Amino acid sequence: MKLKYYAIIIMAIFGACSSDDENNCGGPQSVRIAEIDENFVFLTWDSQGAATTVVLGRKGFSPETGTTSVSFDGWTSFGNLAPNGEYETYLQSVCRDNTISDLTGPYGFRTLAFGQGCTQPQSLIINEMTESTVTISWDGMGQNLWEIAYGRNIFNPSESSWQNSNSTTFKLTDIEPGVAYDVLVRASCGVYKYSNNAVLTNIVLIEE
Questions:
Q1: Residue 140: predicted pLDDT
Q2: In the chain, pLDDT over 70 holds for what percent of residues?
Q3: Where does residue 9 fall: left (phi above 0), alpha (psi -120 to 50 degrees), or beta otherwise?
Q4: Which domains does the chain have, with CATH numbers?
Q5: 0.70 exceeded by pTM
Q6: Is 149:162 a contact under the CB 8 Å cutoff?
Q7: Distant-in-sequence, close-in-space partners of 150: CB < 8 Å, separation ≥ 6
C-alpha cells in the first residue's frame, strides 16, 4: 500500500493531477511550525487523508524541484537547512481511496540566524588512541547535550546507533586495528531537534 501511495504522490507533485480532478479528501489544515532553529524545522498539521506529501524548498521554488517527505502521522521534519534562510513548503493529502488533494501552500518560514538555535559542534578532533579505543573531543558551541554515532561507513546511521553525551569528550570503544571508522557528532536540542553533523572520517588504528 505504501508503494501505491508513493507513486501517486510523485504523480501529483509533477502535475499529473489538475485542480479539476474529483478528490475525496481535502488538503492538510492548520499547518504549524512546532520547532525551528538554525538548520532544522519540525512541521505539524491536521491530516485529511491517509498520508501527506510535504515538499520543501527555498522561497519561490517550484514544487517539482523541492525536497519531498511523506508522512502518515501528521508531522515531519527537515534538517541541513541554512541559517537565517527563507523557505517554503507545500502539502498535499493522499486520500484513503488513493485520490489526491490539490497542493496547499506555500507556507513560508525563516530559520534562526547562526548562534540562535541548535548549533553544530565545531573543531572535532582525536585526542588519544589506544589498542582498541579512540578518544575524541569538540567545541560544544554553547550546547549541553550531544549524540555520537561511529562505525564503518556510518553516514546514514539508524536512530539506535546514536549514543548520548553531556561532555565534549567521548571515547569510542571496541575499535578494530586496521579498519577505517567514521564518526558523527551532533547537538541534541529537544524532541527530534538536532544540529548538523560534525564529521571525522577514515580513523584507523595502526597495529605496531
A1: 93
A2: 87
A3: alpha
A4: 2-110 (2.60.40.10), 122-203 (2.60.40.10)
A5: no
A6: yes
A7: 172, 181, 182, 183, 184
